[in-house]
Amino acid sequence: MSENAEVQKVPPAVAARLASMEARKDSGLVGRTAIVPVWLNRADHLRAHDACHAAAGSWNQSVSWLRGQWEAGETPGKEDVRRFVTSLPSEDRPFHAHTAQAVAYDLWDAVATSRANRALGLNARAPWREKKYRPLSFTAGFGWRVTPEGRLALSLGRGRIVMPMPEVTLRNGQPVPPKNWGEIRLCWDRNARAWSLHISYSAPAEALPEPAEGRPTVTVAIDEGIINPMALAAKMPDDSMKVLVLNGRQGRSAKRYRNKVVARLTSRMSRCKNGSRKHRRLMAAKKKVEAKTERRLHDFDHQVSAKAEKFTREVHETWTEHHQKKSGPDTVVGVRLVAGDVRGIEKNTNKTRRASRSTRQQLSQWSRGRQENYLQYKTGLKLEHINEAHSSQTCPKCNTRTKVRGRWYICKDKSCGFRCHRDAVGGVNILTLTDNDGTFVPDPDLRVEVTYRRSQTSWSPLQRSLHAWHQDVLGRSGAVRREERRSAPNRATRTGTDVTGVAVDRAARSGDTTTRQGAGRATARVA
Predict the structure, then answer these.
(1) What is the rounded CA–CA span in Å between residue 266 and residue 402?
(2) Which of 84, 221, 240, 276 could potentially form a cystine with 430 if both were Cys, beta carbons 3.0 to 4.6 Å apart?
(3) Torsion (CA) 429, 376, 310, 325 in degrees, nearest 10
(4) How far apart, in Å, do the first and last CA atoms of the chain sit?
(5) Distance (Å, whole) CA 249 – CA 228
């Protein structure tokens, strides 16, 4: 009875969308979105801006009409919203009819999502806020097409925007032809002040097998944090615990740089008159910094999720080989992703004063949700959440609870003497809670192998100083000029002397007869 009640709570629109996603997944395909920057000339730029403002106006009128219908006791449906939007005067919607239809369907999806969240007990409101800007949607086969000259044409109803054909590639580098594209959205980034196309397409699914009845399953536990975004733990066939700790220094550095620069620019802007020349220059500088930082953080989150995906696939491959040796080559091993539930930790921190000012800022800027979404679509698995209370304070070897100070966990029980990284302990305990129905079970024979890895590859201060010293020695010796040392191909093809003054012909060693200066750089450009 309770299961049927839960099924009835899901709105039909959400159920249909979930069914379509499952059908596409069963067919071996998965939906992706490619973001391609584009450039528009002044005329197309103005027309696109006007259309985006008009799309926002259509959204606002639809929200007002829909709320009026609800207040009058009516129950309009999805098609009723579509008919209202398409019945608006043509001067109020200077775009394609399918773009107006996309506005109506997006509004109804937002209504269905709010109803589903309220059915789950969450505090969610139906759409009510007015918009000033909205992306333009172009449906496949109607809103956009490929011209005979091989260019992309986006229809605006009474006119179109023509641009060079964008390039969309899969993760392995193979191009995706336009016939496999779906809906295209033309979006404006107000910080970067640039247009981009969000192109949806279908790609072969590289999903890991999910847990199923009668199928052996391996669990990968994730302890999420601000200092270290993810600490992944998994049990191996030799009964050891393998842990990967990903460092988040690059992400925290980017956020700190943005916060300090934005604070300084905002302070200067407060002393300027709104609309003045200096105020506009400071605002432009602020948006430039925010756009640059957002690009860095997007890349950082992708790097974190990519390394977490690699760890998950390595664990799955190890367990697959282990079970295939025991049960046969057709054995399929499922994978279960479980993370500590820290959702909503950033809420009401200012009212309850349970965190300092700097900690509240770090919690509000924590991109945990985006990293989880990236990891889910890269692995094809659904991420589960479990209560992680006291997971970083409980010793996984003797169950002694110790208040941790710093990044290292040291068990206060002298007879135990367990010592490990704090985040690694959290990942191991989350794995224990998952396998034992939320109960801490000590393991006296626990063996933990911790690997530390940077989320983004970079040089340490020592490596950078040693490299600079080495380059200064080469420069003082007269072996090469500074311009030649900037390119690795040039260093490989040049003829000169090494640090000891002995003549060296690297091109001759490699079998290349090209020894003129700058040839390596030209070759690299051609390649």
Answers:
(1) 43
(2) 221
(3) 80
(4) 65
(5) 8
